[in-house]
Amino acid sequence: MKTFDVVIVGGGIIGGSIAFDLARRNLRVAVLDRRELMQEASWAAAGMLSPAPDCPAAIPLVPLGRASLELYPKFVEAVEDASGQSTGYRMGGAIEAIFRGDAERELSTLVALHHGLGLACEPLPLDEAMKMEPALGRDARVAAFLPDECSIEPRKLSSAVFAAAASKGATLRPGAEVVSLAFDKKKCAGVKTFGGEIFHAGQVVLAAGCWSSQVPDAAPYAPTFPVRGQMAALRHCGTPIGYVLRSEDGYLVPRGLESPQTIVVGSTIEHAGYEKLVTSGGIEKILAAANELVPELAKAEIIETWCGLRPGTPDQLPILGPADVDGLVFATGHYRNGILLAPATAKLVGEWITERRIFIDWEPFSPLRFTGASVDRSATA
Ligand SMILES: Cc1cc2nc3c(=O)[nH]c(=O)nc-3n(C[C@H](O)[C@H](O)[C@H](O)COP(=O)(O)OP(=O)(O)OC[C@H]3O[C@@H](n4cnc5c(N)ncnc54)[C@H](O)[C@@H]3O)c2cc1C
Asked: How confident is the model at residue 92 (pLDDT cuts 50, 70, 90)?
């Protein structure tokens, strides 16, 4: 039997960032993952740090996204210092190009939407865009510059975050699948694993990505589901690409500037269950979008393809905050924004657990929005 202050279920970027935050506050923390750590959505992500909403449903998320982007430089510094590893964090902005439809009108809407949400976004005359990014496709009709956006390398970041958490004393337990929460009367008092091990804890944090809904007793609070995204990496030997580039059909994220450059391109949004499959149709779609953004990429070698399962939620907002039973906190459902939201999520959960205070309103993301009534939890595991 093991006893911790906090047990975190799920070893993705969310679980790892919370573990690092709590371990720095001198709490005894354990992260349990059913597989190896950081092999799921957090490993698959592109690494854009963009607080812009990609649909109207995501607008309530913008303040949290902005706050997280502001936390990023200090978060990266702390993680890199503690781990001795680089995270591939890059500032510099993103260019969004529009290739179809009523492009001028789309551009004004894009700029107005950003300004209304307090996000920097300026129309970029095409000759300026071509100077900033000479490889940009000549078929672009209009473009905008988003100067505050950044990018990071999620695989490096996740590795550094867990190394940082371990350096501060966090216990990392891959291969520990949580099969139930353990209750002591009405309080959540730990978890039980598939192997029958019990981990006692003052607080349990549920951060199991799209699988959160599969943990018994967690499902009513966290009706998460998988949303598959396919990705590819290209080896680009042509004109270096300096910015994150996006169009209406896809995006590409350069990793560093040295030649040959690795360019990560994505992504699909598919409701295909828990099956992780890279398909010819999916890859065709993302490569077409990449080649339109930068036609030179048609000559680039495909060096890797992969996919990951984003943790979707019914209203496309994350699930953050305490349940209506003591000792149980949720940090899941980050859908397309978990890399961006990791620093803010860690700070929110860390401050709430240790000081019962929050630095930004998380009420819109409460797990109680799904439950309606409280659930009977008198059984013990
Ligand atoms: C293709 C793609 C591109 C993306 N691009 C971006 C991007 O550019 N920017 C951005 O901000 N976000 C992006 N995202 C979204 C981001 O990756 C996710 O929101 C984020 O990784 C979610 O992190 P997580 O830790 O909640 O989940 P995960 O990384 O999926 O981790 C959950 C972990 O929980 C474990 N687990 C599950 N069940 C149990 C159990 N019962 N017991 C123990 N462990 C369990 C799993 O094994 C897993 O390791 C992208 C996602 C994908 C798929």
From this structure: very high
101 phi-psi bin (left φ>0, alpha ψ -120 to 50, beta other): left
Distance of CA 234 to the CA centre of its chain: 22
Structure tokens at 343: 């620093």
Residue with tokens 């071509």: 130
- For 48, the token pair is 């854009």
Asked if residues 119 and 52 have their Cβ atoms less than 8 Å apart, the reply is yes
Cis peptide before 295 (omega within 30 of 0): no
CA geometry: angle at 90 spanning 88 and 94, to 5°? 135
Query: Which ligand 1 atom sits nearest the alpha carbon of residue 14?
Result: 25
- For the chain, state the CA radius of gyration: 21
Return the bridge partners of 198, or none.
192
Asked if 274 contacts 226 with a C-beta cutoff of 8 angstroms, the reply is yes
pLDDT digits (tens, 9 = 90+) for 320-352: 999 999 999 999 999 999 999 999 999 999 999
Phi-psi region at 293: left, alpha or beta (left = phi > 0; alpha = psi -120 to 50): alpha
Strands 328-332, 198-206: pairing kind: parallel
Strands (E), the chain: 2-9, 29-32, 48-49, 94-98, 122-123, 142-146, 150-151, 171-173, 178-184, 187-193, 198-206, 225-236, 244-246, 251-255, 261-266, 301-312, 319-322, 328-332
Residue nearest to atom 51 of ligand 1 (CA): 45
The one-letter amino acid code at 370 reads: F
* Gap from CA of 39 to ligand 1 centroid (Å): 8
Tally of CB atoms within 10 A around 35 = 12
Q: How confident is the model over 179-194, as pLDDT tens digits?
A: 999 999 989 999 999 9
Among protein residues, the one whose CA lies closest to atom 41 of ligand 1: 178
Query: By C-alpha distance, which of 146, 103, 138 is closest to 293?
Result: 138
The 8-class DSSP code of residue 270 comes to B
CA of 105 to the centre of ligand 1 (A): 35
3-state secondary structure of 132: helix
